[in-house]
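Hi X.,

You mentioned you wanted examples for the new student's onboarding notes, showing what a folding record looks like when two proteins sit in one file. Here is a clean example. The first protein comes first, with its sequence line followed by its structure tokens.
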Amino acid sequence: MEKYESYDAYLAALEKRGQLPEGFKTAVLPLSFFPEERKLINPLPMNMSLIMLDKPTTRFAGIFTSNRCPGSPVLIGRERLKSKQIRGILINNKIANVCMKTGVEDSISLLETLAESAGGKVEEYFPCSTGIIGWRLPIKAMKAVIPKLVSSLEGGTGVKLAKGIMTTDAFPKLRSIKVGKGRIVAVAKGAGMIEPNMATMLSYILTDISMGKSFLQKCLKRVADQTYNCISVDSDQSTSDSVILLSSGCKPAVEEDVFEAALLKLCTELAEDIVRNAEGSGHVIKVEVTGAQNDALAKAVGKAVINSPLVTTAIFGNDPNVGRLVSCVGDFMGINNLTFDKDQMSIWLGKELVFDKGSFCIDRRKEEKLSKYMKERSFDSDHKSYPEHNLTVDVLYKLSEKGKGHAVVKGTDLSYAYVKENADYRS
């Protein structure tokens, strides 16, 4: 079990595992600005972050949100996948650059300034923006920072990058894994508005292992489907979700299945970090569904559970209200007019069997034991600046004896702090 007693201890762990792969440098610089859309006494802060390869690479991949109102950087990013080579990624937090009349023009203008300072062509850079939707980027202030950003590029770890891309995140998220003679390092940001169908909020995966572009794209999609696409915080998919994978090609290739297994492990851990960091969360919930007709149905059932306000509020209150675990599945099956027999279903909360072949099997002893179980897995919903532990509240559904479908979905409880965070977001 991972356990941290302080922010410094957590940061030390990130520094230890966060060494950048060979061939990469990063930089992060702050700026302040006054938004055009709101009169403020004090300026707002923004971070600009840059990921740069020492040499352009032909080995890269990306997946993006399926939200039909995507941000301008997503529109550009999809086109960048057709580029012959990539040099880097320019990222800003605070403003997401979504559905603005000058949105694409603004992102391109920033990349033009970057290309002038760092070399190469505009088409060799990905733009990414995250934050408030509906405001225009402070282009003048951002362009003024870019030359300094380029000159401050350095190696070392990815911790500054992980911190720089945060918005409402309580703590930075970074994972790494060794593969063959190389390694994979990934960072992510995301705390709310996470119900991805293509990716997650923002995640950048860097490796020095020399894998081909075609394989990386297919591999990233498969891994995302099993990790980033199996988490939910509030059932709202962002307009800016992006996952970008870059390989410097500095280290020898490994077997494709070895690389994919390593990437799957890393992204599984990073996806859970996002859920643990979710706005106002007090528990991470892991729902495993077996016995479904297929994997897609198993995943849909799992998401119905972790997106149920009645289930998630009960878990926030450490209340083993198992009736809600049954009700939400019956509701999902009924609304979608799916064939379902409750007499074949069994449910476990933790290691306790609470529903068996159509009937509840709960008593006072189990109620008390399960309440204690949930309390042991809780953490501060107002969020400290580090994760206290990596424990989860585990729910297992066995829908039938015959079905082969299986999925593991992760989400979070629903707390007072979540409502407060999102009610006060722009205040």
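Then the second protein repeats the pattern, sequence line and then tokens:
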Amino acid sequence: MRTRRTLSRFDDDEHKVGHERWLVSYADFITLLFAFFVVMYSVSQVNEDKYRSLSATLKAAFSESDVKQAEVNEPVSTMATLESELQEALSGFPVDGTMTRSGNENWLELSLQSESLFDSAEASPSDEARALFSTLAETLESQQVDVQVGGHTDSVPISTARFEDNWALSSARALSVVDILANAGVPDQRLSAVAYGETRPVADNATEDGRRANRRVVIRISAAQDVLETNDSSDLSTALSPDVEEESVAAAAATPSDDVPDVAPAPPRTVAPVKLRGGDLLFTSDPDLPRLRERAPEDD
């Protein structure tokens, strides 16, 4: 006897195959793609105020860069012009064979052999040398430059009543040139003297020509440091807070002068060389302070 099997709707679902499962992944992909384009659209929207601010900042930055570039190029023309002026001013002196010039956009250096300026083992310039340095000072006195005078000697030992060694001779010669420049009008604060003795030769001391080349006075001219520092400080204060600076100036102008106490100017100090135990020279305005070192002999 056969048994009849009754099919239910559950049996139909069990044998039914689903062909629409790909719709789930497709829907997820469409959702992600929609979100991606929404984000891209929001990012692409330009804020006009921010754009103007960015444009102004870039313009100011590039303008400042152009100004700085002009400031960098300015010393080039200044030193080149100064070299031409010095060459023209000194053209009347017979120093062509004993003076050399060198430098770059930041400094200019004049090297003069000592035999054209001083007698042997002496620190007093000749009349021609005094005229030469006076003419040099006329060109430099109106320039915003620092002037350093360096004295150099050869390696031949020296010992005289006035100069016990080459250090003393080189320092005395440098100081005598500085004294001429100062008396001719170059501001004292822009002058300095350095003694090198025989420590920086430019030629071989074994030959007479080499020793002659090493006996020299070198005048190094560069842009004034205090002017550079003042310009940098002014630019920085203006860039950081121009309004504060204007208020400070206004407040200073409004302050009564009676409230400011009178301060007497400090008396001028005389700079004198002090010889260290190692042989070096120290130029100081307080030569009498105890330093465990000997005092260099003073000029007669």
